[in-house]
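tRNA-guanine(15) transglycosylase
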Amino acid sequence: MRDCFEVRDTDAGGRIGELTVPRADATVETPALLPVINPNLDTLSPRRLATEFGAEILITNSYIIHGDDDLRERALEEGLHELLDFPGAIMTDSGSFQLSEYGSIDVTTEEILAFQREIGSDIATPVDIPTPPDVSRERAESDLETTQDRLEIADAADTGEMLVSAPVQGSTYPALRERAGRHADGTGLDVFPVGAVVPLMNDYRYDDMIDVVAAAKRGLGADAPVHLFGAGHPMMFALAVAMGCDLFDSAAYALYARDDRYLTVRGTRALEDLEYLPCSCAVCTDHSPADLRGLPDRERESELAAHNLHVTFAEIRRIKQAIRAGNLLELVEQRARAHPTMLDGYRTLLDHAAQLERSDPVSKGSFFYTSHESARRPEVVRHHDRLTRLSVPDRLLLTEGDAPRGDEFDDAWRVEPPFGPFPRALSKSYPLTAEVPARTDRAALAAAADGVARLVETNPETAVTLAHRGWPADVRDRLPDGIALVDLTAADRNRNR
Ligand SMILES: [Zn+2]
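Predicted structure tokens:
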């Protein structure tokens, strides 16, 4: 186990964990949000972040502090916590972002790590190379080699109690991200940011973002705390948490406020377009949209930033509660409806259902089938795998109806979309207790048919009869040959005649 991180609870790929930050003498519960503080601009003061918003940790940029004579002197003299007046843990970035924006920076990994330690950072960052999406594979590979060299320098450096992050790069190449994850995991470094995903988010490429995170996670161990670097919009937190992200940083709350933009969990709204404020934070209960629009610039920016941050922290708490309750994927399904590209992200998440299944609890409170995507959830994948291990009798009836009398069959199992067949004894166990709409959709029937197919293919000697309620031809086409079919709806019609 990694000393600094302990997983307490899981749901799908999401987890509630504890990140121990020894230098701050603090334990941060994850998923956690790190508000970004620009040391030159105080949209909301760090002290206020702690007292009013409950921020346990924030992130600031050591490269900006290093490059400013006044800030550097004060940070070296007073220490970072005094400089910012923040009582919690402080993570520092290294200038990698400036490197990617401007092409060069004037510090080395050794220098900036030593500086971060000197000013009292609790979690430091080496100078990695944030490789943008869609570059050539050659470039992504050569950048990654440089990043890996920097991680090894950081690993060998004397950093004392300070935690050090190990960014995972590799552009949009899943194989490189996985390799990068494995390399980072093999170092003695502590926190694992998945880097250079901001361009993906800016272009609403949530599907690619999920593929990148899934690949990094395959390389990293299950005990690695994962930071989605630069992701601050609350709309996508549930999705990213479900794929296994533990830490987020938000500059968005302040940047959007500067542009008069109002964050919601269903997307961003322009203040000028709002006639009502769909939020009950202090800002939104004390003001109407017109009030806010009438405020002087600085004040309006600060009020909007406060609202944006309230919404952001509230979503983190909602996600934690969903993990505890075991309904994180239900929350992801809701969020996925906010924007078509979010739905792409969710569908991509389900492409990784087998990977998520490993951390998904065997038993939870409830499974709500709320969209046809539900048919691809990890619980369905797990049930289909389980079907290959159940023992079956010689003559088996699988039925959506009642168990028949008589001795035509040795046993009669239930069939429930989207899971497919199961012995009656399992009826009361998760996830077969799922709440499924009476108006079943095609995806649930198809998944049930796939379950039947798995069972039949694993047990070629068994004589299987399937009694279904009017499954359409394209669903029946998924069933293997040699299975006897009875349409219960036809039998019902005959009985009623
Ligand atoms: Zn509000």
